Amino acid sequence: MLTLNAPAKINWFLKVLGLRNDGFHEIISLIQKITLYDVLTFAPSEDLILETDGRIPTEENLVFKAAMFLKNEYSVEAGALIYLDKNIPVGAGLGGGSSDAAATLCGLNKLWSLNLSREDIFKAAEKLGSDVPFFLNGALSLAHGRGERIVSRNALKTINILLVKPPFDVSTAWVYKTFAASGASVYENGKNPRSEQAQCELTKKAGKVNNIEHFISKIEKAELGYLAGIASNDLELVTIKGFPVIAEIKERLLDAGAVCSLMSGSGSAVFGVFDSRKKAEVASRTFAGFWTVAVRTIID
Question: Among this protein's residues, is 9 annotated catalytic?
């Protein structure tokens, strides 16, 4: 029997650069793992069985899809009993499904003695979802492309976070479709029509120095005073139009003492940055009726 933790994530910034010819959106995002985990347990079995307390049907669950991919790709005759203990909420922009898929690839690689290389596992991850490769990497990464091109960064200090999720999910597909309908440009023939604009926007927000690297360095060193006004998410505006309570949560986090607040990924979860865990926990008491949890960022 093998047990693995699958961490959630937050996006410190997310710029959508345009719609690609393959139907995906070109993005650039700084992503970090946090101390909220789904737990997966793998055991030998004649059949492939997924047991979970989550509400996604088995055939649609990325854990089952990852397992079936490995079985088919490598002609695996063995089965597995996989138990998924869900703690990361669905439809929250926290990457739970993608993290589960990454853990499944690693867990079954060991359980089935496939001896797959890191490169093989990454190729499988890319086929399962845009965020899946990130969870095979370090704690803090800069993601490019549709999210599958990962560049590791070096986080030095943990940051205290309060996660707040309203009592509804948000579909990632709906958010990106709505964003595209709002007038997003098209990413064609390897050209990136919004890349210079995105760099300029982040550069202006970063202030004194130059560009994205300035902001990343502040995250790496956990210099919280620089985060307000720099952290940004292009998907926030369209999501807030559909779900105004997300803007309310952001404001309430700031009122409760957060250094900054931002929607993670495509939502619906919002995170606030606090200078101590105690302050984050105290702030959580002001969100009756919402799902909340105080966590920390993970460092390598």
Answer: yes
- Of 145, 142, 168, 143, nearest to 155 by C-alpha is 142
- Whether 187 and 20 have beta carbons less than 8 Å apart is answered as yes
Token digits of residue 177: 């479709």
Indicate the domain borders of the chain.
2-153, 160-296
Active-site residue, from 38, 100, 131, 234: 131
263: helix, strand or coil: strand
> Can 131 be counted among the known catalytic residues?
yes
pLDDT digits (tens, 9 = 90+) for 94-148: 999 999 999 999 999 999 999 999 999 999 999 999 899 999 999 999 998 877 7
- What's the CATH architecture for 160-296? 2-Layer Sandwich (3.30)
Assess whether pLDDT exceeds 90 at residue 191.
Answer: no
Fold of 2-153: Ribosomal Protein S5; domain 2 (3.30.230)
Q: Would the pTM of this model clear 0.85, i.e. be above it?
A: yes
